[in-house]
Amino acid sequence: MDLSSPLAALPIVLLGLILLIIVIGITWAGMRVGIKGAKSAPAADSLEKDDDVNGAIVPAVLGLLALLLGFTFALAIDRFETRRALVLEEANAIGTAYLQAQVLPQPHRERVSALLVRYTDNRVVLARTEAPEDRRQRLADNDRTVNDIWAATLAGFDSIKGLDMSSAFVSSINAVIDLDTSRKTGRMAHVPEEVFWVLIVYVLVTAAILGYTMRTRSSFHLACVMHVLVVMSLMLIIDIDRPAAGGIRESQFPMELLSKSMHAEPRAAYDRWRTPATMPQE
Question: What is the secondary structure of 203-260 as a DSSP string?
Fold first, then answer.
């Protein structure tokens, strides 16, 4: 979704209120036009025919609206679930790379481990950041850290290239870098904005049709309740489709748990059963 678009720029609550006011206004205007048209109708039998047509059109319009809402909701949820799965996958990849980095000799071991910790902490903060300027800064830090991780990996690989696990270590770092790209792509994967605009136009047209078929204030009040539910559903979908600024975001618990684990467990603890003779030397 384009950040300059009103759908992305406006807060969800404000966008929903604006849309709800417009929808209710269109419904009221449609009801006034319908009542005026009914009063000027030449015969009662024509009114009965109109009521029959309206009775067929209104359920069809509402049914199609429900179908469009459900289809759009499914698209947004699919992207949300993809982003959530990538969080767990990235946490597992970083954890594996971090553990395998403990085989490296110093100073490569400390360098790679510290970079992975910094990278994880930055990813957790980045997922919570809403301000565009802060996000750009965090993304720049993220990209620099990824480059540093790969440079440190190349330096450390030369010291263990004779070991069988050297290729596995490089593969684990590659997985971390690949998932960095996957998560960025996942956050840029939105429901096409055209889908939302078509859905909004359809909501407005539905409001006009409903208003035109109404004759009493009680029917208007019931229609307003339905409009509130429809607008709430639409705002929920738009919120889910805003991974960087919406209120509904994928949980960062796996990354947070990994970060706490790496900070709580000193790297020297992995050497508690190793002897100086068996530890790799630079």
Answer: HHHHHHHHHHH--SHHHHHHHHHHHHHHHHHHHHHHHHT-TTTSS-----HHHHHHHH
Q: Do 32 and 266 form a contact (C-beta atoms < 8 A)?
A: no
**Four-point Cα dihedral 255, 256, 260, 261, nearest 10:** -30
How many angstroms separate the CA atoms of 159 and 166, rounded? 9
Long-range contacts of 268-272 (CB under 8 A, 24+ apart): 270/102
Instruction: Please report where in the chains the tokens 């035109």 appear, as a residue.
Output: 212
pLDDT given for residue 280 in this prediction: 57
Amino acid making up residue 154: L
Average pLDDT rounded to a whole number, residues 59-63: 88
Q: What is the mean pLDDT of residues 132-149?
A: 91
Pick from 238, 240, 189: which is nearest to 86 by CA? Answer: 189
pTM of the model: 0.83
- Asked whether the predicted pLDDT for residue 117 surpasses 90, the reply is yes
Query: Quick one: which of 60, 90, 53 has its CA closest to 259?
Result: 90
Instruction: Answer whether 236's CB lies under 8 Å from 16's CB.
Output: no
Whole-angstrom distance, CA of residue 150 vs CA of residue 155: 9
Whether the CB-CB separation of 68 and 202 falls below 8 Å is answered with yes
100 close to 280: Cβ distance less than 8 angstroms: no
270: confidence class by pLDDT, cuts 50, 70, 90? confident
Most confident of 34-43, 212-221, 230-239, 260-269: 230-239
Comparing 142 with 276, which gets the higher pLDDT? 142
Q: Tell me the C-alpha distance between 142 and 64, whole Å.
A: 44
